[in-house]
Amino acid sequence: MLRDISAHIAKQYDDMMSIDNVKWCLTVPAMWTDQAKGQMREAALEAGLIHELDSPRLLLILEPEAAAVFSKTKGPAFQFKEGEIFMVVDAGGGTVDLTVHKMTIKDGEDALEEVCRGLGGTCGGTFVDASFREWVCDKLTPEQVDKAERERPKDMQSLYTAWDNAKKEVGREDTDDVYIPIPVGIYKSLPQEVQFRLEEEQDGYDTDLVLTDEDAKEIFEPTVQRIIALIRQMDARVQDEIRASVDTMLL
């Protein structure tokens, strides 16, 4: 992918500048080790972004650090005061990454100072999706879900897309039960006992998966608790290292 990006930029701006004059800023998860960052540099070198492994034209920045810079420069809703300490919680698909910065003044201009080492964990949105799949297995049986994923991947993708849309709405106080349609091909392939059980458990509905508020909480809860634990761990680290508390949190 890095090679494709490099080739695209070289093609688009060939008449305006040399690719060798480009400074690359690549974001990486806060939990990455120095070894992982080194592998990213090697990938950038192999892709032709840089010509030397330690080239100053490649800057690796932590994902939540990039969010912090954006909030300071492009986010008018977040006008931090000098000395204010804020935590960025970058909840992505695979990882959740946290950094803590303090607003300072350097050479008469606003600047961000990293308060302590970043923290991250593998508890992003894909883990919520994995919990949803387990819930579907409880409804349709693991055997039927495995079979549908093998034989009807497009239908299963349709079901997962419906979940992807639904999960943005669940959990609100005014949210009713969410009905996720079972694709026709999958429904017809279900054994009768599974269809009957759906009808019995869902008050007569057997062609939809009925997601209640309680179901949604059970799906989200394991991942949410892991994120909360990360936030508490980071907050404790700040208090231990600089004897201060976080003033603001950006999600």
UniProtKB/TrEMBL annotation:
Superkingdom: Eukaryota
Pfam families hit by this protein: HSP70
UniProt xrefs under InterPro entries: ATPase_NBD, Hsp_70_fam
Transport listed as a keyword: no
Protein name: Heat shock protein 70 family protein
A molecular function GO annotation: ATP binding
Entry keyword set: ATP-binding, Nucleotide-binding, Stress response
Entry keyword annotation includes Nucleotide-binding: yes
Coiled-coil residues: none
